[in-house]
Every structure is written in structure tokens, then in C-alpha cells.
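seq as requested:
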Amino acid sequence: MKKLWFFFIAIAIVSCKQEVKVDYAILLGKIENTSSSKITLYNTYDTSNKKELTLENGQFTDTVKINNTSKFFLRQGNNSITVFLAEGDKLNFTYDANKADSTLVFTGENSAISTYLIKKRNNNKELEIDMKDLYSLKEAGFVSHLLEVKKNQNDFLYNAAGLSENFMKNETSNINYEYLSSLSNYENYHSYFSKNRDFKVSDKISNQLKDLSFENEEDFKFSRNYRSLTTNSYQKKATTLVESDSLTSDIAYLKTLATVKNDEIKNKLLYDAAKYEVTYTADLETYYALYSKASTNKENDAKITESYHKLKVLAKGNPSPKFTDYENNAGGTISFDDLKGKYVYMDIWATWCGPCIAEIPFLKKVEKLYHTKNIEFLSISIDDVKDHEKWQKMIIDKELGGMQLLADNNWESQFIQDYLIKGIPRFILLDPKGNIVSANAPRPSDKKLTELFDELKI
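C-alpha cells:
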């Protein structure tokens, strides 16, 4: 009897023991006919959050932390697949690298959702029309097309098997947000493609957008379309603030974001803006102070603070970071210290960068205007080594002047990192001693550049 009593106590203890909740999923992959040694996993909520996974004989097993989203995408060579992972899931996938679309198979928990997401991508390709053709449509035809696409997507969703009720709810909302996001873009894009700058949408479109709420955290995490609508909404409010309070657009946007009530949404929008704009702002101290006051995410704050301290080193009058032995297209190599004695106007660019190419005609005009002055025009390409010939060919084809250099390690070049360059083109002006005049100098297409040159008596 005593043994039975101990047995029942043991059962009770085991029964009352709380189940341990995990915050990760297990992902297993097998890729046939691949020469890749790595596959990269990206978090769709924050694509800078990525993880390199090592393939052994085309296979890997890894844990994936579930944080803010269940949607991830994997990139291996030219193949990209979307996966859905919830806490506690164990998801398997296999495909042939030579024909991924037709051989991809998912098994395991929530595999039906991952299967749906891949099939949805293929279904959407069949519905796509050229962006110019779409936004050139007159309003009635444009709205009619969007409604047809929306119906097709909803039908495709409701005919999919094995999807959870919660996913169905969120995905239904996401499809509607995609429709609304396209509506919100119509006025600007149609104005551009139709060359009618005075075009305004009718109330039929604007009324569908005016009552949207942008404080829904679940939708914000799940739907990229909802995030896009939210961002656009606060950018429009910031534009109004620019006009009413004579603020710069970056400062106005931070002030607008500070009014967001939901902390998750506010912190995400603040960080997404600041991680790039903090390197371009003309008023670093004000920008950083506004960001720091509004943000409550310590991890994000640490990253922006690190950038802030690096940028303070790039203030006017401070010595510029240096580079050593960059390849000179004219022959040999050039180091930073070889440039002293003249003002130096640097163009950080790449052959694949459209906005960079657009600045070339303006840069050539400025070079011609100041070719006898005490200034060196220096272009540093961050093209990958595999595009070396493409870089040289463009110099010839575009008849590029000035000094043409190739950085030693594209985006990862220490000089590029030291200047916190996260987007190109980027222009830098140095004085004859190698000190910084402006770490974010005006573009050649901006008349402020020649005004600055004249002010410096170059």
C-alpha cells in the first residue's frame, strides 16, 4: 500500500510538471545536385537578420530562433524558397538544385503552409503584368484588374489544404493589404508613367485608404504589405510636417514616428529608418537625440549608438579614414596618402547602381568646369572582383574622367566600412590636408555642390 502511495505521488508530480515551451524550430534540408557549401537563411521581418548554414553533402540540420515572424526565406545559388516555421516545428524540405521549382517537397509540422507559400508565388507569377503597363491603366481598369487578382488569390488560399485557421485569417488580411498597397501607389505611379503630374485619384480609391489603422501588431509582423502601407502613411504625415514646420525630411519622419503608440511597430520603423539615414543626416546630433528619445528597443539602440559614435569621427575637420593600394584603372595602385595637396571629391559607385550611372553626366560637367582648379575627382568602385572587366569596360564606354579606382573588397572594404557607407552613390569632399570637409557631400546633380566649391574658393 505504501509503494502504491509513492507511485501516485510520482504520477501527480509528473502530471503537474509544466511543459517547457521552446522558442525555436528545427529545419532540415536536403539539396541534390548542388555544388554550394552554404545556404543562407533570412528573416523576412528583418532581412539583415541572416544565418549562414553549412551544407554537408547537400544536407543540413539547424535550429531557427522564432522572433517576430514565422516567415523565412532560404537562398542557395540562384534558388530561393520561402518557409514557414512556428515554435516547436520540425520542418523538412528537399529539392534538386537544377530544377528546384518542380522538385521542392516539404514534410513535417506546418509543411502545408510552406507548400502553400511556394505555390502562391508561382500562382502570382501567372497574374503579374509589367509595372508600367499596370500603373498606366486608367483608374477603372486598374481597380478592376486588382480586384480580379485579389479574388484569384483568395480562391487559391481557400482551396489550399491543411492550413491552420489562424494562418488563413492572417493571410486573408495580407491579401487585402496587398490590394490596398497597390491602390495607395496608384496616384504617384500613374502620374509618373502617364506624365500627368497633376493627376489625382478619385474618392473611390482614397475612401478605401482613409480609415486604415496602423497600430495592429499582429498584422505588422505577418504582412509585408501592411508594413509597406504603414511606412507610407507615416512618410506622408512627415511630408506635411516638412511643409508646415520647415523641417528636413529625415527629422520630420522621426518626429512623426515618435507618435506611434505600439512600441513594436514604432521601434521597427525607427530602426529601419535610422540604420540608413543616420549616415546621411545633415544634423547628426538632433537626429540621434530624436531617435534615442523615441526608441525603447535596447538592441536596436546599441546598433544606432555604435553608428553615431563612428559618425562623430567623420565630422568636418577630422582626418579622413584611409585606404591603401587600390587598383588604378590607368595602371598601378593608389593609396590615400598619395592624394594630399589638393581637394578631393570622391564618388563611391558601382557599375550595377542605376542612381550612380544617372550622376555620371553631371559629374563629367563638374569635372570639366573645375579641371584647372585645385581639386582631384576620384571615383571608387565597389564592384566585386568578378565584375573587374565590366568596371573597365564601363570606364571606356562612358568615357569616365578623373581617377578611377577599384576598392579592395567591395562593400566589405575597410574604407567603405569606416565611412559607414550603406547605400550608393555616396560623395565625399576632403581638403588638401586629407581632412573631411563633408562626409556626405552634395551630388554632382545638386547645384549646392558648385556653390560649396566656390565658397571654398577651389
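Residues 24-127 form a domain with the Immunoglobulin-like fold (CATH 2.60.40).
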